[in-house]
Write a structure and sequence with these properties.
Alpha-Beta Plaits; 23% strand; alpha+beta; 4 domains
Length: 575
């Protein structure tokens, strides 16, 4: 082929450059194919970016449906380092005076010093085997009707439901009913009603106090009052040990193996062990006032008999005072004295520390702002991809998804969901505008944080219902059974449904489009390959044809030269 290409063009003047020009003239379809493929890849890439933004938007919206979204609490302590207090949405806002009198500690026993190495076989040291036993020993007073089916818990809920009217809130602290005025200042809590005494609230001298601690109730929060008291009535409030484990010890055991054996049974015995400077040190895993019992034929040999007082450290219960109520627990993490509150003790206090529990408006506002920011990011990107540019320009550039019906519908639906009212029954407060979210003509959303905080202060449930609300309807089926239908009408729920229809990995619109793009790009790859093969074949034909032409012309020239030489020779002979 190299020799043929060298000959080509020698006589005809048709070179490889001419061949490539001919091939280029026939490559229009190839340019079309590659252009289509580039365009498809750009569209596919754009949809992948849309997927990412929609997924992020879904995450921001889902955060607004969580229980803590608009009822989050924050805690401020008057002194740090003594304890931490975490408050869930169920916690009551208010001020709590807390004193840490004592931290819970573990019981510990330090054995007598043993004069043998940890790996010494006991048979060689003591000449015997045996066992070891271990174990642990100005508003109108509000009348709240209380029925025979009520419990302490439901009474507390009822009091708190009327806080706005009565000015008084309530909480259970270690089985005491604690009343607190909602407003600060020197206020008087008045108490009356037929069951005040039963609730431990028949207290003499209760004037001019803002915190009131009831007498301790000897019944569980969920105990029905009819079973405890045998009556119903009303309440008027207003402002004015474990089993020992036997561990066999053989002659092959060492101190280390005995320690290992003790620790292997910690779950059952409640006791762990360690060697410190040849002393066996036993410790109860749980905190609190507990006693370690020791027995067995080898207790004395292990240095665990006839112990002196300074070898035993008795565990202590945690002791705290919350709003004047003394509480003890066998743990430094206390979560059962107030609903929604966990108290983690760190150190004792010399004076009461005030824990102020308030609504965390900043956290709630941030969640909404995060959603608004992601919404704007998504809508801006969609607008860029749909941009048609300036058609009058010769080199006009358009967005990768310009004219795509699916992305246009998505843009319209997203805008509609943010501006349409929510059918949750809160007329006048069922739009994004009501909580400070506005949308301008360009589709950009803006959050008025002050308006949102005001809405949260007035009624956080109305804000929550805007994003997360389910309507339940019941109907009777043909067979007589009751059918319950749940319709999720909240803004976040509708956003989630719409976004999932696009982002679902199996049946989503984007997944379907991605599969289509893959097939179309693959098909174009095949067509480009086939077309290139045809062009290569045509190039070879051109080379052969034009090389043959040059050879023919060369041979013709040779024949002409031969004839001319013959003619010249003949003329010479005739002279």
């Amino acid at each position: 082929m190299a020799s043929s290409m060298n000959i080509m063009g020698t006589y005809s003047g048709i070179t490889m450059e001419t061949v490539e020009q001919l091939i280029s003239a026939e490559s229009g379809k190839l340019t079309k194919f590659t252009g289509e493929q580039t365009s498809l890849k750009a569209e596919q890439s754009a949809w992948k970016d849309v997927q990412t933004r929609l997924t992020n938007l879904t995450d921001k919206m889902n955060a607004l449906t969580k229980p803590a979204a608009f009822d989050a609490k924050k805690v401020k302590l008057s002194q740090e380092g003594k304890f931490t207090l975490s408050a869930s949405p169920a916690a009551l806002s208010g001020d709590f005076s807390i004193e840490v009198k004592q931290l819970a500690t573990r019981t510990q026993v330090i054995g007598n010093k043993l004069e043998l190495a940890e790996d010494t076989k006991l048979s060689s040291a003591w000449g015997k085997a045996g066992d070891l036993k271990i174990g642990i020993a100005g508003k109108d007073a509000q009348t709240i009707t209380i029925s025979e089916t009520d419990s302490i818990e439901s009474v507390i809920d009822r009091i708190n439901e009327s806080t706005k009217e009565s000015g008084v809130s309530a909480v259970i602290i270690d089985n005491h009913v604690v009343l607190q005025s909602a407003d600060l200042g020197n206020k008087k809590i008045n108490i009356g009603g037929t069951v005040a005494s039963d609730l431990g609230l028949d207290i003499v001298g209760s004037n001019n106090i803002t915190h009131m601690r009831g007498n301790k109730l000897e019944l569980a929060e969920d105990t029905k009052l009819t079973s405890a008291w045998g009556k119903a009535g009303d309440l008027t409030i207003g402002i004015s040990g474990k089993e020992a484990q036997t561990l066999p010890i053989s002659e092959k055991d060492s101190i280390k193996s005995v320690i290992d054996r003790i620790n292997e049974s910690t779950k059952e015995s409640g006791v762990s062990a360690v060697i410190i400077d040849n002393h066996v040190v036993l410790q109860i895993e749980d905190l609190g006032d507990k006693t370690i019992t020791i027995g067995g034929t080898l207790a004395n040999d292990l240095g665990l008999a006839n112990l002196k007082p300074n070898q035993v450290t008795q565990g202590k219960q945690a002791s705290v005072i919350v709003n004047g109520i003394a509480i003890t627990r066998d743990t430094n993490t206390i979560s059962d004295i107030m609903e929604g509150v966990t108290l983690t003790l760190q150190a004792t206090t010399t004076e009461a520390v005030t824990a102020k529990v308030t609504d965390d408006l900043e956290a709630s506002t941030k969640l909404v702002q995060d959603f608004v920011d992601q919404y704007n990011s998504t809508m801006t990107f969609i607008s860029t991809q749909l941009d048609v540019g300036d058609p009058s320009q010769e080199n006009n550039k358009t967005g990768a998804l310009a004219g795509d019906g699916s992305i246009m519908r998505l843009q319209s639906q997203l805008r509609g969901l943010l501006t349409q009212p929510v059918a949750n029954g809160n007329a006048g407060n069922n739009t994004a505008t009501a909580i400070g979210i506005s949308v301008d003509r360009s589709g950009k959303a803006t959050l008025d944080k002050s308006k949102l905080e005001t809405a949260l202060k007035e009624n956080s449930k109305i804000v929550s219902d805007l994003f997360n609300y389910t309507v339940e309807t019941t109907s009777e089926a043909a067979d007589g059974t009751t059918v319950t239908k749940k319709d999720e009408v909240g803004m976040a729920q509708k956003f989630s449904t719409l976004l999932n229809s696009f982002t679902d990995s199996k049946e989503g619109i984007i997944a379907t489009k991605n599969e289509t793009y893959d097939k179309m790009i693959k098909d174009l790859d095949k067509r480009i390959t086939v077309f290139n093969e045809r062009l290569d074949a045509k190039r070879e034909r051109y080379i052969k044809q034009f090389t043959a032409l040059d050879i023919a012309m060369m041979e013709a020239e040779s024949q002409i030269n031969y004839l001319m030489s013959q003619v010249s020779s003949s003329n010479g002979n005739n002279k």
